[in-house]
Structures are given as structure tokens and as C-alpha cells.
Design a protein that fits this description.
Blueprint (H helix, E strand, L loop, with lengths): L1 H13 L5 H35 L6 E4 L4 E7 L3 E7 L2 E6 L3 E5 L3 H5 L1
Length: 110
């Protein structure tokens, strides 16, 4: 029986170690999946928001990140003046504008 054990040990030692590519392949696959499912869509949203903020102009009706609806009266480099109702004007950072809504949204919301 001793001669069977030694041949089994010899076969086990004869097997090759996995190649570097096959051991790194799962890690590479996970990075690619994260890129397409998490990182790339977030970069797209950030780019769209930067374009939205860059395109702000006086007269645009917007919704802020806090949920306030108003009309832009003045656009500065870092801040915009937002008229919420007649005589109520606030200043807020340009980046806190969440979305531009169609003209007439303020009138229809009253």
C-alpha cells in the first residue's frame, strides 16, 4: 500500500501553480463591473450637473437641492439670487440648484 501513496504525492507535486493572469482575472473583472455600474454613471451625473449650473441665466425657474422653487433674478460667479415670491429674494450657491423646470411652473404651482 505504501507504493500508492508515494505516487499520489508525486502527481500532486507535478501540477502547476495557477498562472498570474488567471489569479488576477477575478479582480480585474470586479474592477470593470464597478466601473460600469457605479463610477461611470456617477461621472455622467456630475458632468450633467456641471453643465446645468454653467448654463444658468436670469429668468430660469429652478428647484434647489432643499426643494425650494423660484425664479433666478441675478447670476453671479458663485452665487445666484432666487426670487421665491414677490419681494422674497435669497442668495444661494450655484451648485445647490438641483434642476431647471419649464417656464410657467411657478404660476401653475400656486
Amino acid at each position: 500500500m505504501d507504493f500508492l501513496i508515494s505516487s499520489a504525492m508525486a502527481q500532486d507535486a507535478a501540477q502547476q501553480a495557477p498562472s498570474m493572469l488567471s489569479s488576477l482575472l477575478p479582480l480585474i473583472l470586479i474592477v470593470v463591473i464597478f466601473w460600469f455600474l457605479l463610477i461611470r454613471p456617477q461621472m455622467k451625473r456630475n458632468k450633467q450637473h456641471r453643465e446645468l449650473v454653467a448654463g444658468l441665466s436670469a429668468g430660469d425657474e429652478v428647484v434647489t437641492a432643499g426643494g425650494m422653487l423660484g425664479k433666478i433674478t441675478e447670476v453671479g460667479e458663485s452665487f445666484v439670487s432666487l426670487e421665491l415670491t414677490d419681494g422674497v429674494v435669497i442668495k444661494l450657491q450655484r451648485h445647490s440648484v438641483a434642476q431647471v423646470v419649464p417656464k410657467g411652473t411657478i404660476d401653475s404651482s400656486n
